[in-house]
Amino acid sequence: PCILVLNGPNLNLLGTREPATYGHETLADISRLCADTAAEHGLKIEFRQTNHEGELLDWIHAARGRCAGILINPAAWTHTSVAIRDALVASELPVIEVHLSNVHKREPFRHHSFVSPIAVGVICGLGSQGYRLGLQYFAQSLKG
Ligand code: DQA
Q1: For the segment 89-134, what is each residue's pLDDT rounded down to a tens digit?
Q2: The complex's ipTM?
Q3: Which end of the chain lies in a sparser environment, N or C, as judged by fewer CB atoms within 10 Å?
Q4: Catalytic site residues?
Q5: Phi and psi torsions of 73, nearest 5°
Q6: Which residues pair with residue 124 across a beta bridge?
Q7: Which residues 6+ apart lie within 8 Å of 103 measured at CB?
Q8: Mutate to test the pocket of ligand 1, among 103, 106, 115 (most ligand atoms within 8 A of CB)
Q9: What domains are there in the chain, each with its CATH number?
């Protein structure tokens, strides 16, 4: 089974982007952590990032019937995009939403997520460990 790991806008800048908020790890570091976690659990993953909302929508559409779940950090689109939420629903796949930072102790505009109501679960504030925990959950739940 394949888990799609999706990253939204500006996450390609991790490592140099607001390190006080997001830490010093790069997206390549997070990709490696996910690959290691997947290997430990016999999961297949596809790890992707885009700054183009339409591209993310296309990836979500293509996952339907092909993947077993979606782990997504929608980044700023979390707070703005009905389209991403609708695409995730249309995929008919279980979704885990992850954020590096604890969005609830940040600006009020980050407290609302269009994705959370349709997600199986949400992990935030645990940095890259959130990705690892989300993948572990998928590995466990796919075993039955
Ligand atoms: C983020 C939180 C969002 O509010 C923000 O726009 C991001 C990153 C996080 O991982 O903490 O770009 O999703």
Answers
A1: 999 999 999 999 999 999 999 999 999 999 999 999 999 999 999 9
A2: 0.99
A3: C
A4: 22, 99
A5: -105, 95
A6: 99
A7: 78, 110, 111, 113, 124, 125
A8: 103
A9: 2-142 (3.40.50.9100)
